[in-house]
Amino acid sequence: MLKLGTILLVILGLALSPLWAGAAEVKIGTINTQDILTKSPEFKRAQDSLKRKAEEMSRPLQLRREDIGRQIQEFEKQAGIMKEDARKRKQEELQKKMSDLEKQAADAQKQLAQFEQNEKAPIFKKLEEAIKAVAQENKLDVVLDTVNPVVLYANPSLDITEKVRSRYH
């Protein structure tokens, strides 16, 4: 984050610097992507869909957690009167159930993350295209997000990658 802030300050400093007086002026625009997204019906639908999916996926896991919790309580009540080998078997069985539940929860989390990616990818793509179009219409060289200060668009003519690559080799 500190690096990003430093980079942004350098960009802004250069854009406003008298050293650039003879060079082309760099036009910078800002945008609040969070505001656009939170007020977007598409994003709200995706958020609602994600919430429903999370609830749907968590119900069976919660029921299993409760069931295992009851089994553990019963085991703790009976452990004192159980034979040692029976107690060890039951303890191993409960540990395996807990381990399986943790694996299922991790799998569910991965599935939910993939579901979120699939739901939101078209929305982010549409936003990216809109930003690029407005930047080009307004002849902006760089667009920064005011919420999470990152470069969202940069005029390709500002890219010095190949120049740096040639000096690097």
Summarize the structure in words.
This protein is elongated. Helix content is 72%, strand content 7%. Helix 3 (41-78) packs antiparallel against helix 4. Strands 1-2-3 form a three-stranded mixed beta sheet, with helices on one face. The chain has one domain. The chain has helices at 2-16, 33-38, 41-78, 84-137, 161-168, and strands spanning 28-31, 142-145, 151-154. It starts with a helix and ends with a helix. The protein has five helices and three strands, in the order αβαααββα. The chain is mainly alpha-helical.
SSE arrangement:
Layout: H1 2-16, E1 28-31, H2 33-38, H3 41-78, H4 84-137, E2 142-145, E3 151-154, H5 161-168
Parallel strand pairs: 1-2
Antiparallel strand pairs: 2-3
Helix pairs in contact: 3-4
Supply the helix-strand structural class.
mainly alpha
Rg, Å, rounded: 27 Å
Strand residues, percent: 5-15%
Biggest β-sheet strands, sense, barrel: 3 strands, mixed
Series of secondary-structure elements, N-terminal to C-terminal: HEHHHEEH
* Total count of helical runs of at least 4 residues: 5
Entry summary:
The protein has 169 residues and is mainly alpha-helical. The chain is 72% helix and 7% strand.
List keywords for this structure.
169 residues, mainly alpha, 5 helices, 7% strand
